[in-house]
Amino acid sequence: MKKLLLAPALIFALISCQNTAEKVETVEKEVVEAAQPQLAFFGREISDGNALDVSTIQASLGDQDSMNVKLTGTIEKVCQVKGCWMTMPYGEGESMRVSFRDYGFFVPKDINGKESVIEGTVYMETTSVDDLKHFAEDEGLSEDDIAAITEPETSLTFVADGVIVKDYKVEAGSAKADEQNTEVEESH
Predict the structure, then answer these.
(1) CA dihedral over 46, 54, 136, 101, signed as positive or negative
(2) 159 beta partners
């Protein structure tokens, strides 16, 4: 009789230990996943290693007309129409416009303030008044602000082949993921 009672008790104890071990393993996995930053990739998949800080780009460019480079910095603004460009500050009051090679991809419109790694080509460019007004419209500036743009602007420009947005997750199969990675038939 004692043996009959002992067998179910042992089975119950084994099942309880197994469930506890599974719970501990699940919690450990969740902690490890939470400790790893979410990286969202747009365009060509790039790595985040060996990126220069964006604040060093003018010195790195030196006398060159252009150069291929990987930079890391904070996203300042994103086109609110389609996510077809973003800006990244690189100096005191200076920001560089980042566009995406051949409008082959876009970035999410809600990533202002996120850390990013971009890889592509940087160069100095003079942007026409018409283009500056177009960018201002994309940014959602007022008609008065747009009308105040009367001079072309020379600044650093970056054409990205790939972008990583840190601490950002795009759910696979979501409308946002589909929107971000759809090629554009018309250039914006």
Answers:
(1) negative
(2) 99, 121
114's enclosing H/E stretch is: none
Cα–Cα distance, 88 to 172 (Å, whole number): 27
Contacts of 140 (CB under 8 A, 6+ apart): 80
Can you point out the beta strands (E) in 75-179?
77-78, 85-91, 94-100, 115-127, 153-166
Q: Name the token pair of 178.
A: 């589909």
Sort strands 115-127 and 39-43 into parallel, antiparallel or unpaired: unpaired
- The type of residue at 129 is V
23 φψ region: left (φ > 0), alpha (ψ -120 to 50), beta (else): alpha
Q: Which helix (H) or strand (E) holds 96?
A: strand 94-100
Task: For residue range 30-76, list pLDDT tens digits in order.
Answer: 544 555 669 999 999 999 999 999 999 989 998 898 999 999 999 99
pTM of the entire structure? 0.68
